[in-house]
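[job 4417] fold queue: 2 targets
>>> target A
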Amino acid sequence: MTRREPELIGQTVVVIGGSAGIGLETARRARGEGADVVLAARNPERLESAAREVGARGTAAFDATDAAALKRFFDDLPEPIDHVMVTGPGPDYAPLLEMDADQVRAALGGHAVLTLAVARSAAGKMRPGGSLIFMGGTGGRRISRDLGIVSAATATLPPLIATLALELAPVRVNLIAAGFVDTPLSASFFSDEGLEARREELRRTLPIRRVVGPEDVAALAVHLMANTALTGATYDIDGGQQFVA
Protein backbone atom coordinates (compact mmCIF):
# COMPACT_ATOMS: atom_id res chain seq x y z
CA MET A 1 0.00 0.00 0.00
CA THR A 2 1.15 3.56 -0.69
CA ARG A 3 0.90 6.25 1.95
CA ARG A 4 -0.96 9.42 0.98
CA GLU A 5 1.02 12.61 1.40
CA PRO A 6 -0.75 15.20 3.62
CA GLU A 7 -2.24 17.86 1.35
CA LEU A 8 -1.44 21.05 3.28
CA ILE A 9 2.16 20.53 4.40
CA GLY A 10 4.01 23.84 4.72
CA GLN A 11 0.82 25.89 4.47
CA THR A 12 -0.84 28.21 6.96
CA VAL A 13 -4.60 28.15 7.56
CA VAL A 14 -6.42 30.95 9.40
CA VAL A 15 -9.84 30.08 10.85
CA ILE A 16 -12.03 32.97 11.97
CA GLY A 17 -14.65 31.50 14.25
CA GLY A 18 -12.27 28.67 15.09
CA SER A 19 -13.09 28.06 18.76
CA ALA A 20 -16.01 25.65 18.23
CA GLY A 21 -18.19 23.81 15.72
CA ILE A 22 -17.31 23.94 12.04
CA GLY A 23 -14.34 26.25 12.55
CA LEU A 24 -12.71 24.05 15.16
CA GLU A 25 -13.27 20.90 13.10
CA THR A 26 -11.76 22.60 10.06
CA ALA A 27 -8.70 23.58 12.09
CA ARG A 28 -8.38 20.02 13.38
CA ARG A 29 -8.59 18.55 9.89
CA ALA A 30 -6.17 21.11 8.44
CA ARG A 31 -3.66 20.20 11.15
CA GLY A 32 -4.11 16.56 10.23
CA GLU A 33 -3.18 17.48 6.66
CA GLY A 34 0.05 19.09 7.85
CA ALA A 35 -0.94 22.78 8.02
CA ASP A 36 -0.08 25.32 10.68
CA VAL A 37 -3.28 26.93 11.97
CA VAL A 38 -4.10 30.30 13.47
CA LEU A 39 -7.42 30.57 15.30
CA ALA A 40 -9.48 33.71 15.84
CA ALA A 41 -12.73 34.08 17.79
CA ARG A 42 -14.47 36.37 20.25
CA ASN A 43 -14.27 34.30 23.43
CA PRO A 44 -10.68 34.18 24.77
CA GLU A 45 -11.23 31.20 27.09
CA ARG A 46 -12.84 28.98 24.47
CA LEU A 47 -10.25 30.12 21.96
CA GLU A 48 -7.31 29.09 24.15
CA SER A 49 -8.93 25.74 24.88
CA ALA A 50 -9.44 25.12 21.15
CA ALA A 51 -5.86 26.16 20.39
CA ARG A 52 -4.47 23.67 22.89
CA GLU A 53 -6.71 20.95 21.49
CA VAL A 54 -5.50 21.30 17.88
CA GLY A 55 -1.98 22.59 18.52
CA ALA A 56 -2.59 25.98 16.92
CA ARG A 57 0.42 28.13 16.07
CA GLY A 58 -1.34 31.28 17.27
CA THR A 59 -4.62 32.82 18.39
CA ALA A 60 -6.32 36.21 18.40
CA ALA A 61 -9.44 37.14 20.36
CA PHE A 62 -11.50 39.88 18.69
CA ASP A 63 -14.85 40.60 17.05
CA ALA A 64 -14.49 39.96 13.32
CA THR A 65 -17.30 42.42 12.57
CA ASP A 66 -15.00 45.19 13.87
CA ALA A 67 -13.27 46.17 10.61
CA ALA A 68 -10.37 47.92 12.36
CA ALA A 69 -9.69 44.92 14.62
CA LEU A 70 -9.90 42.58 11.63
CA LYS A 71 -7.37 44.64 9.68
CA ARG A 72 -4.99 44.76 12.67
CA PHE A 73 -5.22 40.99 12.97
CA PHE A 74 -4.14 40.38 9.38
CA ASP A 75 -1.53 43.16 9.48
CA ASP A 76 0.04 41.55 12.55
CA LEU A 77 0.36 38.09 11.02
CA PRO A 78 4.12 37.53 10.73
CA GLU A 79 4.30 35.82 7.35
CA PRO A 80 2.25 35.04 4.22
CA ILE A 81 -0.77 32.78 4.68
CA ASP A 82 -2.40 30.29 2.35
CA HIS A 83 -6.04 29.86 3.39
CA VAL A 84 -8.67 31.72 5.38
CA MET A 85 -11.94 30.16 6.53
CA VAL A 86 -14.70 32.32 8.01
CA THR A 87 -17.61 30.59 9.70
CA GLY A 88 -19.57 33.82 10.24
CA PRO A 89 -22.60 34.67 12.38
CA GLY A 90 -25.85 32.70 12.34
CA PRO A 91 -29.06 33.81 10.58
CA ASP A 92 -31.68 36.19 11.99
CA TYR A 93 -35.16 34.67 11.77
CA ALA A 94 -37.10 37.72 13.01
CA PRO A 95 -40.36 38.41 11.13
CA LEU A 96 -39.83 41.01 8.41
CA LEU A 97 -42.39 43.53 9.62
CA GLU A 98 -40.98 43.43 13.15
CA MET A 99 -37.47 44.45 12.04
CA ASP A 100 -36.32 48.04 12.24
CA ALA A 101 -34.05 49.67 9.67
CA ASP A 102 -30.83 48.82 11.52
CA GLN A 103 -31.84 45.16 11.84
CA VAL A 104 -32.61 44.98 8.11
CA ARG A 105 -29.25 46.52 7.22
CA ALA A 106 -27.46 44.08 9.51
CA ALA A 107 -29.36 41.04 8.23
CA LEU A 108 -28.94 41.90 4.54
CA GLY A 109 -25.47 43.35 4.70
CA GLY A 110 -23.82 41.62 7.65
CA HIS A 111 -22.43 38.63 5.80
CA ALA A 112 -21.57 40.67 2.72
CA VAL A 113 -19.77 43.35 4.73
CA LEU A 114 -17.82 40.74 6.70
CA THR A 115 -16.92 38.90 3.49
CA LEU A 116 -15.60 42.04 1.85
CA ALA A 117 -13.72 43.13 4.99
CA VAL A 118 -11.97 39.77 5.25
CA ALA A 119 -11.13 39.76 1.54
CA ARG A 120 -9.77 43.31 1.69
CA SER A 121 -7.73 42.69 4.84
CA ALA A 122 -6.37 39.27 3.88
CA ALA A 123 -5.59 39.75 0.19
CA GLY A 124 -2.19 41.35 0.66
CA LYS A 125 -1.03 38.56 2.96
CA MET A 126 -2.02 35.59 0.82
CA ARG A 127 0.11 33.46 -1.46
CA PRO A 128 -1.07 32.97 -5.08
CA GLY A 129 -3.30 29.91 -5.33
CA GLY A 130 -4.44 30.22 -1.73
CA SER A 131 -8.12 30.37 -0.85
CA LEU A 132 -10.77 32.28 1.02
CA ILE A 133 -13.72 30.16 2.17
CA PHE A 134 -16.97 31.59 3.52
CA MET A 135 -20.12 30.00 4.94
CA GLY A 136 -23.64 30.38 3.61
CA GLY A 137 -26.72 28.17 3.69
CA THR A 138 -29.16 26.18 1.56
CA GLY A 139 -32.25 26.50 3.76
CA GLY A 140 -32.72 30.17 2.92
CA ARG A 141 -33.20 29.46 -0.78
CA ARG A 142 -36.88 28.74 -0.28
CA ILE A 143 -39.33 31.49 0.56
CA SER A 144 -41.16 31.15 3.85
CA ARG A 145 -42.74 33.44 6.42
CA ASP A 146 -40.77 31.53 9.05
CA LEU A 147 -37.46 32.45 7.40
CA GLY A 148 -38.17 36.18 7.20
CA ILE A 149 -35.30 38.07 5.63
CA VAL A 150 -32.97 35.05 5.57
CA SER A 151 -33.90 34.18 1.97
CA ALA A 152 -32.90 37.62 0.71
CA ALA A 153 -29.63 37.53 2.67
CA THR A 154 -28.83 34.05 1.33
CA ALA A 155 -29.27 35.17 -2.27
CA THR A 156 -26.61 37.90 -2.01
CA LEU A 157 -23.65 35.63 -1.29
CA PRO A 158 -23.08 33.42 -4.41
CA PRO A 159 -22.71 36.34 -6.87
CA LEU A 160 -20.57 38.21 -4.36
CA ILE A 161 -18.25 35.21 -4.00
CA ALA A 162 -18.01 34.76 -7.77
CA THR A 163 -17.11 38.42 -8.30
CA LEU A 164 -14.48 38.31 -5.56
CA ALA A 165 -12.94 35.25 -7.21
CA LEU A 166 -12.36 37.35 -10.33
CA GLU A 167 -11.07 40.39 -8.46
CA LEU A 168 -8.70 38.48 -6.15
CA ALA A 169 -7.32 35.97 -8.69
CA PRO A 170 -5.05 34.05 -8.44
CA VAL A 171 -6.27 33.81 -4.82
CA ARG A 172 -9.34 31.58 -4.94
CA VAL A 173 -12.70 32.35 -3.29
CA ASN A 174 -15.46 29.82 -2.57
CA LEU A 175 -18.69 29.53 -0.60
CA ILE A 176 -19.90 26.55 1.42
CA ALA A 177 -23.71 26.42 1.67
CA ALA A 178 -24.74 24.21 4.56
CA GLY A 179 -28.10 23.05 5.82
CA PHE A 180 -28.62 22.02 9.43
CA VAL A 181 -25.23 21.11 10.92
CA ASP A 182 -25.16 19.62 14.41
CA THR A 183 -23.12 22.31 16.18
CA PRO A 184 -23.50 24.42 19.33
CA LEU A 185 -24.70 27.31 17.14
CA SER A 186 -27.50 25.20 15.67
CA ALA A 187 -28.39 23.88 19.11
CA SER A 188 -28.84 27.45 20.37
CA PHE A 189 -31.98 27.80 18.21
CA PHE A 190 -33.75 24.86 19.95
CA SER A 191 -34.77 23.61 23.34
CA ASP A 192 -33.20 20.27 24.35
CA GLU A 193 -36.36 18.43 23.31
CA GLY A 194 -36.68 20.42 20.11
CA LEU A 195 -33.08 19.73 19.14
CA GLU A 196 -33.42 15.98 19.51
CA ALA A 197 -36.72 16.05 17.61
CA ARG A 198 -35.00 17.93 14.78
CA ARG A 199 -32.16 15.40 14.69
CA GLU A 200 -34.61 12.52 14.54
CA GLU A 201 -36.60 14.20 11.78
CA LEU A 202 -33.45 14.63 9.71
CA ARG A 203 -32.33 11.04 10.29
CA ARG A 204 -35.72 9.91 9.01
CA THR A 205 -36.12 12.26 6.04
CA LEU A 206 -32.68 13.09 4.64
CA PRO A 207 -31.48 10.95 1.72
CA ILE A 208 -28.26 10.27 3.64
CA ARG A 209 -30.28 9.02 6.66
CA ARG A 210 -28.09 10.84 9.17
CA VAL A 211 -27.45 14.35 10.48
CA VAL A 212 -24.69 16.42 8.90
CA GLY A 213 -21.92 17.14 11.41
CA PRO A 214 -19.16 19.75 11.56
CA GLU A 215 -16.61 17.15 10.48
CA ASP A 216 -18.49 16.80 7.17
CA VAL A 217 -18.21 20.51 6.48
CA ALA A 218 -14.57 20.53 7.58
CA ALA A 219 -13.76 17.79 5.05
CA LEU A 220 -15.26 19.93 2.28
CA ALA A 221 -13.43 23.04 3.47
CA VAL A 222 -10.05 21.33 3.44
CA HIS A 223 -10.75 19.90 -0.02
CA LEU A 224 -11.47 23.44 -1.27
CA MET A 225 -8.12 24.52 0.17
CA ALA A 226 -6.20 21.67 -1.45
CA ASN A 227 -7.84 21.56 -4.89
CA THR A 228 -6.41 24.55 -6.73
CA ALA A 229 -8.87 24.27 -9.64
CA LEU A 230 -11.84 25.38 -7.52
CA THR A 231 -12.86 29.03 -7.35
CA GLY A 232 -15.89 31.28 -7.59
CA ALA A 233 -18.39 28.54 -6.79
CA THR A 234 -20.94 27.59 -4.15
CA TYR A 235 -20.76 24.06 -2.72
CA ASP A 236 -23.87 22.63 -1.06
CA ILE A 237 -23.55 20.32 1.92
CA ASP A 238 -26.89 19.59 3.53
CA GLY A 239 -27.45 15.86 3.06
CA GLY A 240 -30.21 16.62 0.55
CA GLN A 241 -32.18 18.73 3.02
CA GLN A 242 -33.21 21.35 0.46
CA PHE A 243 -34.89 18.67 -1.67
CA VAL A 244 -37.06 17.16 1.06
CA ALA A 245 -37.85 20.17 3.27
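>>> target B
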Amino acid sequence: MFRFLSRYREPLIVGALLVWPLVSYLSSGHRGREPSVVDRLVLAVSSPVQAGLTWALGGVTGTVDGYVALRGAHEEAQECRVALAEAHAALNALKEAEAENTRLKAILGYVEQTTEQEIVARVIGLNPTAQFQSLRINRGEDDGVRAGMPVLTPDGVVGQVVRAVGGSADVMLLTDASSRIGAVLQRTRVRATVTGLGDGRRLSLNLVRREDDAKDGDEVVTSGTDGIFPAGLHVGTLRDVQRPAVGMFLSATVKPAVDLARVEEVLVIPVALTLPAASVTREGP
Protein backbone atom coordinates (compact mmCIF):
# COMPACT_ATOMS: atom_id res chain seq x y z
CA MET A 1 0.00 0.00 0.00
CA PHE A 2 2.79 2.41 0.93
CA ARG A 3 4.60 1.55 -2.28
CA PHE A 4 1.43 2.31 -4.29
CA LEU A 5 0.98 5.68 -2.56
CA SER A 6 4.62 6.52 -3.07
CA ARG A 7 4.53 5.59 -6.74
CA TYR A 8 1.36 7.53 -7.61
CA ARG A 9 1.74 10.33 -5.10
CA GLU A 10 1.66 13.23 -7.53
CA PRO A 11 -1.41 12.07 -9.55
CA LEU A 12 -3.24 11.39 -6.25
CA ILE A 13 -2.46 14.87 -4.91
CA VAL A 14 -3.61 16.55 -8.13
CA GLY A 15 -6.78 14.41 -8.16
CA ALA A 16 -7.53 15.30 -4.55
CA LEU A 17 -7.07 18.97 -5.24
CA LEU A 18 -9.45 18.75 -8.19
CA VAL A 19 -12.05 16.69 -6.31
CA TRP A 20 -12.04 18.80 -3.15
CA PRO A 21 -14.07 21.73 -4.55
CA LEU A 22 -16.76 19.29 -5.72
CA VAL A 23 -16.95 17.60 -2.32
CA SER A 24 -17.05 20.95 -0.58
CA TYR A 25 -19.82 22.15 -2.89
CA LEU A 26 -21.93 19.06 -2.33
CA SER A 27 -21.44 19.16 1.44
CA SER A 28 -22.59 22.77 1.61
CA GLY A 29 -25.96 21.88 0.14
CA HIS A 30 -25.44 23.82 -3.06
CA ARG A 31 -25.39 27.02 -1.06
CA GLY A 32 -23.03 29.77 -2.01
CA ARG A 33 -20.14 30.43 0.34
CA GLU A 34 -16.82 32.15 0.45
CA PRO A 35 -13.99 29.97 -0.92
CA SER A 36 -11.76 28.49 1.73
CA VAL A 37 -8.00 28.42 1.74
CA VAL A 38 -8.01 24.98 0.17
CA ASP A 39 -10.42 26.19 -2.52
CA ARG A 40 -8.21 29.09 -3.30
CA LEU A 41 -5.18 26.79 -3.43
CA VAL A 42 -6.93 24.39 -5.80
CA LEU A 43 -8.07 27.23 -8.03
CA ALA A 44 -4.58 28.70 -8.07
CA VAL A 45 -3.14 25.36 -9.14
CA SER A 46 -5.87 24.35 -11.61
CA SER A 47 -6.37 27.71 -13.37
CA PRO A 48 -3.00 27.72 -15.17
CA VAL A 49 -3.54 24.09 -16.11
CA GLN A 50 -6.99 24.90 -17.47
CA ALA A 51 -5.69 27.96 -19.32
CA GLY A 52 -2.86 25.90 -20.81
CA LEU A 53 -5.24 23.18 -21.91
CA THR A 54 -7.59 25.78 -23.41
CA TRP A 55 -4.72 27.46 -25.27
CA ALA A 56 -3.38 24.14 -26.51
CA LEU A 57 -6.79 22.96 -27.70
CA GLY A 58 -7.43 26.35 -29.32
CA GLY A 59 -4.06 26.19 -31.06
CA VAL A 60 -4.70 22.68 -32.33
CA THR A 61 -8.15 23.67 -33.53
CA GLY A 62 -6.77 26.78 -35.25
CA THR A 63 -3.99 24.76 -36.83
CA VAL A 64 -6.43 22.15 -38.13
CA ASP A 65 -8.77 24.84 -39.44
CA GLY A 66 -5.85 26.66 -41.05
CA TYR A 67 -4.58 23.46 -42.64
CA VAL A 68 -8.03 22.66 -44.00
CA ALA A 69 -8.41 26.20 -45.34
CA LEU A 70 -4.90 26.16 -46.80
CA ARG A 71 -5.48 22.80 -48.45
CA GLY A 72 -8.75 24.07 -49.89
CA ALA A 73 -7.01 27.19 -51.20
CA HIS A 74 -4.24 25.05 -52.72
CA GLU A 75 -6.75 22.80 -54.47
CA GLU A 76 -8.66 25.83 -55.71
CA ALA A 77 -5.43 27.42 -56.97
CA GLN A 78 -4.54 24.17 -58.74
CA GLU A 79 -7.96 24.11 -60.41
CA CYS A 80 -7.46 27.74 -61.48
CA ARG A 81 -4.04 26.90 -62.96
CA VAL A 82 -5.53 23.99 -64.91
CA ALA A 83 -8.38 26.18 -66.18
CA LEU A 84 -5.89 28.90 -67.16
CA ALA A 85 -3.70 26.41 -69.03
CA GLU A 86 -6.75 25.10 -70.89
CA ALA A 87 -7.77 28.66 -71.75
CA HIS A 88 -4.26 29.41 -73.05
CA ALA A 89 -4.31 26.23 -75.15
CA ALA A 90 -7.70 27.13 -76.59
CA LEU A 91 -6.50 30.67 -77.33
CA ASN A 92 -3.37 29.36 -79.06
CA ALA A 93 -5.51 26.98 -81.12
CA LEU A 94 -7.72 29.88 -82.17
CA LYS A 95 -4.67 31.97 -83.09
CA GLU A 96 -3.26 29.11 -85.15
CA ALA A 97 -6.61 28.62 -86.89
CA GLU A 98 -6.82 32.34 -87.60
CA ALA A 99 -3.29 32.43 -89.03
CA GLU A 100 -4.01 29.37 -91.17
CA ASN A 101 -7.24 30.95 -92.43
CA THR A 102 -5.32 34.09 -93.36
CA ARG A 103 -2.75 32.09 -95.32
CA LEU A 104 -5.38 29.98 -97.05
CA LYS A 105 -7.37 33.09 -97.98
CA ALA A 106 -4.25 34.56 -99.56
CA ILE A 107 -3.67 31.35 -101.50
CA LEU A 108 -7.33 31.22 -102.54
CA GLY A 109 -7.17 34.83 -103.68
CA TYR A 110 -4.10 34.07 -105.78
CA VAL A 111 -5.70 30.96 -107.29
CA GLU A 112 -8.81 32.92 -108.28
CA GLN A 113 -6.65 35.40 -110.22
CA THR A 114 -4.87 32.75 -112.32
CA THR A 115 -5.97 30.43 -115.09
CA GLU A 116 -3.85 27.40 -114.08
CA GLN A 117 -5.26 24.69 -111.81
CA GLU A 118 -2.81 25.00 -108.94
CA ILE A 119 -2.43 22.21 -106.44
CA VAL A 120 -2.52 23.39 -102.82
CA ALA A 121 -0.08 21.45 -100.63
CA ARG A 122 1.06 21.56 -97.03
CA VAL A 123 4.72 21.47 -96.00
CA ILE A 124 5.39 18.32 -93.96
CA GLY A 125 9.19 18.29 -93.87
CA LEU A 126 12.25 20.49 -94.20
CA ASN A 127 15.82 19.67 -95.19
CA PRO A 128 17.79 22.95 -95.08
CA THR A 129 21.26 21.44 -95.46
CA ALA A 130 24.06 22.94 -97.50
CA GLN A 131 24.10 19.81 -99.68
CA PHE A 132 20.43 19.95 -100.60
CA GLN A 133 18.02 22.64 -99.47
CA SER A 134 14.52 21.27 -99.90
CA LEU A 135 11.15 20.81 -98.31
CA ARG A 136 8.63 18.02 -98.57
CA ILE A 137 4.94 18.52 -99.34
CA ASN A 138 1.92 16.27 -98.82
CA ARG A 139 0.98 16.05 -102.50
CA GLY A 140 2.59 13.72 -105.00
CA GLU A 141 2.03 11.71 -108.16
CA ASP A 142 -1.42 10.62 -106.97
CA ASP A 143 -2.40 14.30 -106.95
CA GLY A 144 -0.89 15.16 -110.33
CA VAL A 145 2.43 16.51 -109.05
CA ARG A 146 5.40 15.83 -111.32
CA ALA A 147 9.12 16.58 -111.21
CA GLY A 148 9.92 20.00 -112.66
CA MET A 149 6.71 21.75 -111.65
CA PRO A 150 7.12 25.24 -110.16
CA VAL A 151 6.24 25.77 -106.50
CA LEU A 152 5.27 29.14 -105.06
CA THR A 153 3.20 31.05 -102.51
CA PRO A 154 1.20 34.24 -103.04
CA ASP A 155 4.37 36.10 -101.98
CA GLY A 156 6.59 34.59 -104.65
CA VAL A 157 8.75 31.69 -105.84
CA VAL A 158 9.63 28.84 -103.48
CA GLY A 159 11.36 26.40 -105.83
CA GLN A 160 10.58 23.47 -108.09
CA VAL A 161 9.59 19.85 -107.64
CA VAL A 162 12.57 17.52 -108.09
CA ARG A 163 11.00 14.23 -106.99
CA ALA A 164 7.40 13.02 -106.63
CA VAL A 165 6.00 9.74 -105.33
CA GLY A 166 2.51 8.58 -104.51
CA GLY A 167 1.50 10.94 -101.71
CA SER A 168 4.39 13.38 -101.36
CA ALA A 169 7.01 15.31 -103.26
CA ASP A 170 10.37 17.01 -102.63
CA VAL A 171 10.80 20.64 -103.61
CA MET A 172 14.27 22.10 -104.23
CA LEU A 173 14.32 25.61 -102.77
CA LEU A 174 15.43 28.50 -104.94
CA THR A 175 18.25 29.14 -102.44
CA ASP A 176 19.85 25.75 -103.18
CA ALA A 177 23.22 26.07 -104.90
CA SER A 178 21.90 24.12 -107.92
CA SER A 179 18.86 26.35 -108.43
CA ARG A 180 18.78 28.52 -111.59
CA ILE A 181 15.92 30.91 -112.42
CA GLY A 182 15.52 33.13 -115.46
CA ALA A 183 14.72 36.60 -114.13
CA VAL A 184 14.22 40.24 -115.07
CA LEU A 185 14.49 43.48 -113.12
CA GLN A 186 10.93 44.71 -112.96
CA ARG A 187 11.79 48.41 -113.16
CA THR A 188 14.24 48.36 -116.08
CA ARG A 189 13.47 44.99 -117.73
CA VAL A 190 17.15 44.01 -117.57
CA ARG A 191 17.45 40.24 -117.92
CA ALA A 192 19.48 38.16 -115.50
CA THR A 193 19.92 34.74 -113.98
CA VAL A 194 19.27 34.20 -110.29
CA THR A 195 21.15 31.35 -108.58
CA GLY A 196 21.03 30.03 -105.05
CA LEU A 197 23.96 30.62 -102.70
CA GLY A 198 23.26 27.59 -100.55
CA ASP A 199 22.88 29.51 -97.27
CA GLY A 200 19.08 29.47 -97.19
CA ARG A 201 18.85 33.27 -97.08
CA ARG A 202 20.28 34.82 -100.24
CA LEU A 203 20.41 34.53 -104.00
CA SER A 204 22.99 35.76 -106.46
CA LEU A 205 22.17 37.98 -109.44
CA ASN A 206 24.28 36.93 -112.45
CA LEU A 207 24.88 37.97 -116.05
CA VAL A 208 23.97 41.63 -115.61
CA ARG A 209 26.45 43.98 -117.29
CA ARG A 210 28.18 46.70 -115.31
CA GLU A 211 26.55 49.47 -117.33
CA ASP A 212 22.99 48.12 -116.95
CA ASP A 213 20.53 50.06 -114.84
CA ALA A 214 20.25 48.14 -111.57
CA LYS A 215 20.16 49.44 -108.03
CA ASP A 216 19.36 48.35 -104.49
CA GLY A 217 15.63 47.88 -103.93
CA ASP A 218 14.78 46.81 -107.48
CA GLU A 219 12.23 44.01 -107.60
CA VAL A 220 13.27 40.82 -109.38
CA VAL A 221 10.62 38.69 -111.12
CA THR A 222 10.71 35.57 -113.26
CA SER A 223 11.24 36.16 -116.98
CA GLY A 224 9.64 32.94 -118.21
CA THR A 225 12.69 32.18 -120.39
CA ASP A 226 13.99 29.22 -118.41
CA GLY A 227 11.17 26.85 -119.42
CA ILE A 228 10.33 26.27 -115.76
CA PHE A 229 8.70 29.27 -114.12
CA PRO A 230 5.96 31.36 -115.73
CA ALA A 231 6.81 35.02 -116.24
CA GLY A 232 6.01 37.64 -113.62
CA LEU A 233 6.42 35.64 -110.40
CA HIS A 234 8.10 37.57 -107.60
CA VAL A 235 11.61 36.28 -106.87
CA GLY A 236 13.00 38.88 -104.47
CA THR A 237 14.56 42.29 -103.92
CA LEU A 238 17.97 43.44 -105.13
CA ARG A 239 20.66 44.10 -102.50
CA ASP A 240 24.36 45.09 -102.40
CA VAL A 241 24.76 46.11 -106.04
CA GLN A 242 28.46 46.53 -106.83
CA ARG A 243 30.25 47.41 -110.08
CA PRO A 244 33.83 46.14 -109.95
CA ALA A 245 36.56 48.02 -111.80
CA VAL A 246 37.33 44.99 -113.95
CA GLY A 247 35.09 42.44 -115.60
CA MET A 248 31.94 42.63 -117.69
CA PHE A 249 29.28 42.06 -115.04
CA LEU A 250 28.15 43.69 -111.84
CA SER A 251 27.61 41.69 -108.66
CA ALA A 252 24.54 41.77 -106.43
CA THR A 253 22.51 39.60 -104.11
CA VAL A 254 18.76 39.08 -104.00
CA LYS A 255 16.71 38.73 -100.83
CA PRO A 256 14.02 36.08 -101.49
CA ALA A 257 10.46 37.34 -101.50
CA VAL A 258 9.34 34.28 -99.52
CA ASP A 259 10.53 33.57 -95.98
CA LEU A 260 11.44 29.96 -96.70
CA ALA A 261 11.92 29.10 -93.02
CA ARG A 262 8.25 29.86 -92.34
CA VAL A 263 6.48 28.39 -95.36
CA GLU A 264 3.55 26.17 -94.34
CA GLU A 265 1.37 25.97 -97.47
CA VAL A 266 2.43 26.17 -101.10
CA LEU A 267 0.98 26.06 -104.60
CA VAL A 268 2.23 23.66 -107.26
CA ILE A 269 1.64 24.81 -110.84
CA PRO A 270 0.80 21.72 -112.95
CA VAL A 271 2.04 22.93 -116.32
CA ALA A 272 3.58 20.89 -119.12
CA LEU A 273 7.26 21.79 -119.20
CA THR A 274 10.32 20.94 -121.22
CA LEU A 275 13.08 20.92 -118.64
CA PRO A 276 16.87 20.69 -118.79
CA ALA A 277 17.96 17.28 -117.58
CA ALA A 278 19.93 18.76 -114.68
CA SER A 279 16.81 20.45 -113.35
CA VAL A 280 14.91 17.26 -112.66
CA THR A 281 17.59 14.75 -111.69
CA ARG A 282 18.52 16.39 -108.37
CA GLU A 283 17.35 14.21 -105.49
CA GLY A 284 17.52 14.59 -101.78
CA PRO A 285 19.51 12.37 -99.49
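[job 4417] complete. Note on B: Helices lie at 2-7, 9-27, 37-112, 277-280.
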